[in-house]
Write a structure and sequence with these properties.
about 180 residues; alpha+beta; Aminopeptidase; eight-stranded mixed beta sheet
Length: about 180
């Protein structure tokens, strides 16, 4: 089972069926904040929607396609970080994340991403990890930049969100680069 302590109060752990109601409550409390950048928010309307997400997430983990983790502070869920799009042949995958509004700007997600990058390279055997972020989402883009990821370029109009397209910036890190950083 995946679990990693970030500090005395913050824990990354594999999502579980028991998280459905609390996770839905967290999304509900942060709905307007999250919907600015995340296309799935408007489609998440019930606890059952979260339950379906959890089932899919646990199946992904069982298939060795990376964990979907809750980020909890003092046992209260404040966000999610996960792997997606694992390609075993090419040893690559992406990381996605979100954090409740009141926990933004404290360096929590950067620490969580660092743990996931280590896991991706050392446990999943990946060679390349990507993090996409909306071009105008400076807070999200700051995370891969702080971790030394390379900005590969802009994916023009790559995501439909809130009735219009957004450009996405793609960041990547190779294992050999990560091994030589101070992370």
């Amino acid at each position: 089972m995946f679990e990693h302590k970030i500090n005395n109060n913050i824990l990354l752990r594999l999502i579980s069926h028991n998280d459905a109601e609390e996770l839905f409550t967290t999304v509900e409390k942060n709905r307007e904040f999250l919907r600015e950048w995340l296309p799935w928010v408007d489609e998440t309307k019930t606890v059952e929607d979260i339950t379906t997400f959890i089932k899919t997430s646990l199946k992904q983990y069982a298939n060795n396609e990376g964990p979907v983790c809750v980020i909890a502070q003092d046992n209260e869920i404040m966000g999610i970080i996960s792997f997606h799009g694992i390609n075993t042949k090419n040893k690559s995958g992406g990381i996605g994340y979100w954090l409740s509004e009141d926990h933004n700007g404290k360096g929590i997600m950067t620490q969580c991403c660092k743990v996931m990058v280590e896991y991706g390279f050392n446990e999943l055997g990946l060679n390349r990890i990507t993090i996409p972020a909306a071009k105008i989402n400076k807070k999200s883009r700051a995370i891969p930049e702080r971790l030394g990821f390379t900005e590969e370029g802009t994916l023009r109009e790559a995501e439909w969100l809130n009735d219009h397209f957004h450009d996405m910036v793609l960041y990547s890190m190779l294992k050999r680069e990560w091994d030589t950083t101070d992370n």
